[in-house]
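Explain the record.
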Amino acid sequence: MPPVSADIGAYLSRFAPSIEVALPQRLLTARSEAEARLGELGLPRRQDEYWKYTDPQIFLRPWEVNPPEPRFVPALLEDACLVVHEGGNFHWPQKEPHDSQSVRMFNLVDAMNSASRETIDLFGRLEGEAHAVIPRPLAAANTCIASRGLVIECPADGQATLQIVHRPNQVSGESILHHVIDVCPNSHLRIVESGIDSSWSNIVFEIRVRKGATFDLVRAIDGTGGAALKGVCSVFAEVEEDGCFNLFNLSLNTPWIRNESIVKLSGDRSQTSLAGAVVGGSGTHHDDTVLIVHEGLACQSRQVFKKVLRHGAQAVFQGKILVRPGAQKTDGYQLSQGLLLDGHSQFLAKPELEIYADDVACSHGSTSGGVDAAAMFYLRSRGIGKAEAEKILALAFVAEAIEEVADAYLVEKLTDLAASGFAEAV
């Protein structure tokens, strides 16, 4: 394999763990393959089509000075199996998950010798396949150097709920995590993730949802209070026949965040819902870049993204629905909206449809604008102050995205978290 370019070599050496653990051969092989992919792709540049609204250099270098510690976000669920991430290490302090629920869970390196071969073979595969449609070089870079993360197996007909809590650790200024999740036939896995443990992150999820299975992933990050956060999270998911994958992201006042979601509906009648709610304040930039590939018959996809911006905040939405030849009866829906609470904030949207089948129903809509004058007048005329009226309208605006979670208890907790982020934004 030819050596990588100087800029790629510098990036990989800068963010590789300072103390490397002994790695199994399967992990070393996947790293080598990813390095070859990254050499072909190159690091992202501002002139690349899907980086025109976000400067990739932000994610290619660490903070020049010691940033403030990330804000702790408490667990959103009380009755789930708790998984704690701190300083790059995962542990489950209460009880072993496979003793109490239908799930097996390992740290990444341990999983190479303990998890099933079918699950382990997912590492690097879904990430590698995705580049054929749209390059994701930072995800390839993650596969090159990641040695920490979770491998989760939910066996056939199983059901489990996990709560992952990230506890900030000043020693861990950078976080490179790679998760592999295999949801076996007719099972239901739900993961609720809150917070982040570092100021700079590159995170990858590789997810397979098999026949008749359902996987729900809910993530909440809070940068309120001046925490200097910048990071990329890339989710690669493949959904087989009659499977369902639901992803929701809540982001509050995060300075530099880019969420990349790549979902392939490979099986007939498979479904996905991707949603996000953002509250952005001064100095924040949030980018959601989504690709959904319809391959099977009668598949359904939904995208609902709502972003409330003020004090010069900037947000991006790039969403693409790709319908392959033969993917008849496709139903694809996409909605992205920005609520601008001042004249300095920006919502940059790029919705796309690329369709190669003739019996489909696909739509996209994108809007941005200020608060509704009539609604504001109604609230103010009843003695509600301007700040409180804006908060009420902002929460009503993001409610459609939060309700995609379809769990009343979680919707309430996420709405409360969004309200606190709005109230404290500067």
In short: The chain has a mean pLDDT of 89. The chain has ten helices and 19 strands. The longest helix spans residues 25-41. The longest strand covers residues 330-340.
